[in-house]
Amino acid sequence: MEIPANPPVVTLEPRQVLRGDFAVLRVDQPLPGEPQLHVGGLSEQPKLFLLDRQPTALIGFPAAAPLGAYPVRLTWDGGEWEGSIEVVYKEFTVDRLEVTEEQEEVYYDPRQAEQWERLYRLRSTSEPEPLWRDVFRPPLDGELRVTTYFGEIRVVNGVETGRHSGMDFGAPTGTPIYAPARGKVILAEEFIVSGRTIVIDHGLNLFTAYYHCEEIHVAPGDWVEAGQRIGLVGSTGFSTGPHLHWTATVGNTPVDPWPLTQGRVADLFTRSKE
Ligand SMILES: [Zn+2]
């Protein structure tokens, strides 16, 4: 007699997210065929990874995502699962910047398009397992001085230009920047707007980025450990003073990096080694 298999249990957490946050989908067992995941209403679709052969995905929601329920559909050979995630209201303040004409030229420099496109392509693939080992640490030591929060509506010289893609920490030039978690450096070079820029792949489609560095101490292809110095705070690129701009992205969708320091996704590493 054939023992019937337990139906797969799909967990999706949290079921309510703020704009600019992300959810985690996991399945408790391998699924037959090639499982496919689709989230309605998202322009960037989540990537499905097999963690111990069990499908796992991070689902990122942009800061400007419309509110409401987003249908989530997982299909596999001979089965499917449907659920939804509700994106709920989060208020974002307005960040007004007054800059010189020279700085404005940097901000709108058309040559930046090629750089962002290249970064976009680099973040289109990710290591297939979580490379972090624990809760993410903040990228700077000591007391943090947040000067701009994630998602703030940015107005440059009176013109609304989009959402602030990360958190800004004010710090003196030369302050060491540390990798928040283990990962692989995928970009380390000078960009027009973000200045000297470092981007780390932490696996499972989760990336962090560091803008406006005075110095870069890593190179593409380097593996970094949590707490390893990767560069120094500066004011390179489009910047009005020394600070670290810290971004987290799920693929190419910026999400608030702060929840990473509060233990979000920390358990995924443990789970992958169970
Ligand atoms: Zn910033």
Automatic annotation (TrEMBL):
Pfam families, sorted: Peptidase_M23
Residue span, M23ase beta-sheet core domain: 163-257
Alphabetized InterPro entries for the sequence: Cell_wall_metabolism_enzyme (IPR050570), Dup_hybrid_motif (IPR011055), M23ase_b-sheet_dom (IPR016047)
CDD domains for the chain: M23_peptidase
Superkingdom as given in the UniProt entry: Bacteria
Name under which the protein is recorded: M23ase beta-sheet core domain-containing protein
UniProt source species: Symbiobacterium terraclitae
